[in-house]
Amino acid sequence: MAVVISLAGSWIPSYWSDEVATLRASRLSWHELFAFVEHKDAVHAAYYSLVKLWVGAFGESELATRSLSAIAVAAAAAGLVVLVASVTSVRMAVSAGLIFTVLPRTTSMGIEARSFALSVAVAVWITVILLVAARARNWRWWAAYAALGAAGTYLFLYSVLIFAAHLVFLLLHHPVRRILVPWLIAASVAVATALPILLVSVTQKDQIAWLSDQPVVNAWTILVEPGFDSSWLVAAIAWCTLLLVAYRSRTIMLSPHSGLFRLAAAWFLVPLVLLLTADALIGPLYTARYLSLTVPAVAILLAIAFTMPARSIVAGILVAALALASVPTYIAQRGPFAKNGGSDLSQIADYIHSHAAEGDGIYLQDTGSITLRPRQALYAYPEAFADTADLALEAPFTTTGTFSDRTLSLDEIGPGLAGIDRIWVVTAGLLDSDVTREAYAALQPIGFFAGTSHKTNRSLITLYER
Known about the structure:
By secondary structure, the chain is of the alpha/beta class. The protein has two domains: 331 residues, no CATH class; 122 residues, 3-Layer(aba) Sandwich (Rossmann fold), CATH 3.40.50. Helices cover 59% and strands 7% of the residues. The strands form two sheets. The chain has a five-stranded mixed beta sheet.
């Protein structure tokens, strides 16, 4: 059910800049990829390597690339059922799995060609292994715990926060002398194994410097976005339920669900507190998507609340109500312009592919916020531009050490126009934007005049003819 819900409609939204980074990295040769991550995005090297293999087998379509995340969501949902059932009842386990499946953050990361869904699956299954290892007293389980923890950290750096959540849980719930020593050894091995990526992340910390310009720490990004994406309705229902759980915490602590409650509470709160503290002291480090690994904990806490009534029908109704409240956000997530507040890269590519003639020049704006640059369409859907001449390219991104090519300005493209009679200029914004006026001022003196224009969701495509 989880893979079907996540995968449905995943091919509809246009790619956006973060997913474009995944695509561009996956197209590099192995030598180029490892050379590139020495300068940029080393924290995603393992994920890019995995996607490179994936697209090599299944292609670069939206459905193909995003299906990896949908499968990871399914793995996380399955693991959550296994986890909860091992501690309490199957009824609560299925409720937790269903809640996790329909939460808006889950259905968002399930159609995102990034590493969040995979990191969540790792967080769930490493927690399953923790509980098994605590009961089995077998070093093989602790070895598996260390290996999966290290792999998860390489997939997504912030996965290391799950170790802190586990430590708090063990201190609260298990006899410390029996469990803490083997856990400390396994966790230390995992962190030591992941030390290279942790150290590289410090040297490449400038790649998240953009967070300092964003209002990323506020009530919305703390209380709504991490678990509920953009759904204030689901967030309101969930937080009212969580407040009820907090109010009934004494009763829960005396119930058979006490261990599960401690685990979920630590899993939910510890990464949040640590990340906010680090952001305040070191910063900027916080953005809501980085807390995706806490979504299973939210699902567990809601499942505890929903199954507190004795009758199963009540739990079913509450889960169904939560799913119904998630529907508007689910549909919006699967609209053509759902990504990044309206990414229209596929719309740009489709229009150029349909209207440009072989040999036409293209100039796609490569300035301003990287998430809004029309040039991203060239990287997202290169086949749509195969018959056109890229007038702006001066040097590819593999030579710059970033995900941006070195490009020419409109004033500098004159020498490259020999034999070109039509230029498609794609700019961000409206007809009277600064870049549109610059295009007219640069091209009109050398004999190109603006013809037809076409407005996409947040870009403008103008044909200039000699």
